[in-house]
Amino acid sequence: MNITIVTVGKLKEKYLKQGISEYVKRLGAYAKLDIIELPDEKAPEVLSDSEMEQVKDKEGERILSKISPDHHVIALAIQGKMKSSEELADNLDKLATYGKSKVAFVIGGSLGLSDEVMKRANDTLSFSKMTFPHQLMRLILVEQIYRAFRINRGEPYHK
């Protein structure tokens, strides 16, 4: 399976880079994983609603440029579907079974995802009703993808 994580914003924190690197290494036994890091749109701290939409639209164009027509797109969004680790594992297993071997997870910038990205998404995923920094979501997502492959292979992994 080929998994791509398309994410907005530069990862600066060393501890997050180390954690992500560890899970990417572990995932190498199960899948090919690419992380595409896109720049976030520069904007002032206080924005009007229309300015927020413009920022999301510009980031959305960058995201969509990295997604091919044959990608099965899963957008991470607060309003997405909450799933257990087992349900995520089952989803990935079904995608592989039915020939959807290219999966793209999308993590938006601090303002979220544009309407166009949400329309392109085949599925949505929420890890919580809480808001997390998008940089931290990268680590959480990579760990959950790794966990999904372990679950699908019946291999032990801490609960």
What does this protein structure show overall?
- The chain is an alpha/beta fold.
- It has a single domain, classed as SPOUT methyltransferase, trefoil knot domain (Alpha/beta knot, 3-Layer(aba) Sandwich), CATH 3.40.1280.
- The chain is about 45% helix and about 20% strand.
- The chain contains five helices and five strands; from the N terminus they run βαβαβαβαβα.
- The chain has helices spanning about 15-25, 50-65, 85-95, 115-120, 135-150, and strands spanning about 1-10, 30-40, 70-75, 100-105, 125.
- Strands 2-1-4-3-5 form a five-stranded parallel sheet.
- α1 links the parallel β1 (about 1-10) and β2.
- α1 packs parallel to α5 and α3 crosses α5 (about 135-150).
- It is globular, with a radius of gyration of 15 Å.
- It catalyses: pseudouridine(1915) in 23S rRNA + S-adenosyl-L-methionine = N(3)-methylpseudouridine(1915) in 23S rRNA + S-adenosyl-L-homocysteine + H(+).
- Its EC number is 2.1.1.177.
- One of its GO terms (cellular component) is cytoplasm.
- InterPro entries: Alpha/beta_knot_MTases (IPR029028), RlmH-like (IPR003742), tRNA_m1G_MTases_N (IPR029026).
- It is found in: Cytoplasm.
